[in-house]
Write a structure and sequence with these properties.
By secondary structure, chain A is of the alpha/beta class. In chain A, 38% of the residues lie in helices and 17% in strands. The longest helix of chain A is centred in the first third of the chain and has 21 residues. Classes of the chains: A alpha/beta, B mainly alpha.
Chain lengths: 205, 320
């Protein structure tokens, strides 16, 4: 039931909205259909980013894909956390070590073991449009623990113009989401894995 | 009397005739390019093929929307304007980050302009964008407070509205023109006349240019355009207009003159958009994705031929 709800919400509602009104173009969207389980890694400029990726998923897949979101932002109140989880399937993680929340890596790793897919923005926060920040290490640790997991790199352009950080008004502009084909990491060290993913994303620019 | 009061739109032979002509021409063109591509795989037919495909889309848009409900044509043209404006706003480097919110006003002008066209309020239709929005946009820019290079935004944003919204809305307004006695094809006939001639003029220019083109006409803006293509295109379009005049209330002489005007306006619209693109430094307006032409490349000639045609017809037959 919930899967159907999310599938229709994103696969039909959000997708049409993004394509017709916002002006999102998907390039090589077929990449999402090639593997059952994957971790999506993307650059990050706007709240639209998550919607844009969720809207691209095949309808049946939506309920098995979990965006990783900042607990301190989206979970700042019970209400906000509830809404986020109801409408996005998100896994909320802590961004600082000073809270009692569970270890983010363990949370994500547990979801992967269960066969679920993840959406991760390794930059950690939205940053300035058009500039990629240094990647956090989490993705490296995660893929080191699960070397069999496919990752799908995504490069998004223009989202920071549609809904920049700190803005509430959405303004339509042509944007694109470029999907790379699913692949496994060749590197085995945390740093080199992070580097490999960063390069895979920039290649799509 | 409004055209919408007539219940059956396909009851007039002229419109059916042109629909049949358009579909036959498109089928012929698609088949030709397909076979041509098979026989000579080295030939570069990409441009011709994408053009033909977009005409299919445009023909389907005009024919289908008018069959279902006339108001749908206005929504469809409004969407076309929206996509074109969004594309222009996205590729334009002349717009500052501060102008983001003001662009919303440009988008909001679209439903208003098309609603006015739907209602057939001519006096408001002709001033809403060229007068009202030309004051409203600068006003909105001013109250946002950022003055650095504000003059550029003040002129760029309203001009974008003119190129994509004001211009195309004339196509929709043709459908709101009142019925004339003894002229059965009505606004739909006029619409098909101007769209068909504008698009075929592009093809004529292309073909004449390919066959006989030697002297470049504007090498700095459109390196592929030649004098031979330009003149051959205009002559062909003018003659064709004479034979398509059954869609219009025109006499033979009028049809020739108006065909000539459409051809020239189409050319000018084309090179204006080309020059804008040169300024931005791109070849196809679909800039974001290399190799994918944008919607602006498809409507460039129409953006000028539509108002040109509209005002000639209006002043000849509908004014006063």
């Amino acid at each position: 039931m919930r899967g159907l709800f999310l599938g229709i919400l994103y696969g039909v509602g959000i997708r049409s909205f993004l394509k017709v009104i916002v002006g999102v173009k998907y390039l090589n969207r077929e990449a999402l259909k090639k593997e059952k389980q994957f971790i999506i890694v993307s650059n990050h400029n706007s709240h639209i980013d998550t919607l844009a990726i969720m809207g691209a998923l095949p309808i049946g897949q939506v309920q098995h894909v979990h965006p990783i979101a900042a607990g301190d932002y989206f979970g700042s109140s019970k209400f906000k956390a509830g809404i986020t989880q109801l409408f996005t399937n998100a896994i909320l993680i802590r961004r600082s070590k000073n809270t009692e929340a569970p270890n983010p890596i363990e949370l994500m790793s547990a979801a992967i073991t269960k066969g679920e897919s993840l959406i991760l923005f390794p930059e950690g926060s939205r940053g300035t449009p058009g500039k990629m920040q240094e990647f956090k290490k989490g993705i490296g640790i995660l893929l080191q623990m699960h070397p069999e997991l496919f990752f799908i790199p995504i490069y998004m352009k223009g989202m920071g113009k549609v809904l920049p950080k700190g803005e509430r008004l959405l303004v339509p502009f042509d944007t694109y989401v470029h999907f790379g084909n699913p692949r496994k990491c060749k590197a085995t060290e945390v740093e080199t894995i992070v580097k490999e993913i960063e390069e895979a994303i920039l290649e799509l620019n | 009397m409004n055209i919408f009061t007539s219940k059956i739109y396909l009851d007039n032979v002229e419109v059916i005739a042109i629909i049949v002509i358009i579909i036959s021409v498109l089928v012929f063109a698609s088949t030709l390019f397909y076979v041509w591509g098979l026989l000579k795989p080295t030939a570069d037919l990409k441009e011709l093929k994408t053009r033909t495909n977009s005409w299919w889309a445009m023909a389907a848009l005009i024919i289908l929307t008018s069959l279902v409900h006339p108001a749908l044509s206005f929504i469809a043209f409004g969407l076309l304007s929206f996509v074109a404006l969004r594309e222009l706003a996205s590729i334009s480097k002349n717009v500052r980050d501060e102008d983001r919110r003001v662009i919303i006003w440009c988008y909001l002008a679209i439903p208003i302009q098309y609603f006015i066209a739907y209602k057939g309020w001519f006096n408001i239709f002709v001033i809403f964008i060229p007068v009202f929005m030309f004051v409203w946009i600068p006003f909105m820019l001013v109250i946002r407070g950022a003055t650095t290079e504000i003059g550029r935004s003040m002129s760029v944003l309203p001009t974008q509205l003119m190129l994509t919204v004001f211009s195309l809305s004339h196509l929709a307004y043709l459908l709101s023109l009142p019925n004339l006695e003894g002229f059965h094809a009505g606004g739909r006939g006029l619409l098909l006349f101007v769209v068909f001639l504008t698009e075929i003029n592009d093809v004529f220019q292309f073909i004449w240019g390919k066959l006989f083109g030697k002297n470049k006409i504007l090498p700095k803006i459109s390196p592929n355009k030649t004098w031979e293509g330009f003149i051959g295109g205009i002559l062909s379009t003018t003659i064709l207009a004479y034979f398509l005049r059954f869609l219009t209330p025109f006499t033979g002489i009028e049809a020739l003159i108006i065909g000539f005007c459409i051809a020239n306006a189409g050319f000018v619209g084309d090179i204006i958009i080309s020059a804008v693109k040169r300024d931005i430094g791109i070849k196809d307006t679909g800039l974001l994705i290399p190799g994918h032409g944008g919607i602006l490349d498809r409507i460039d000639s129409l953006s000028l031929s539509a108002p040109t045609f509209f005002y000639i017809v209006y002043n000849l037959y509908y004014a006063g």
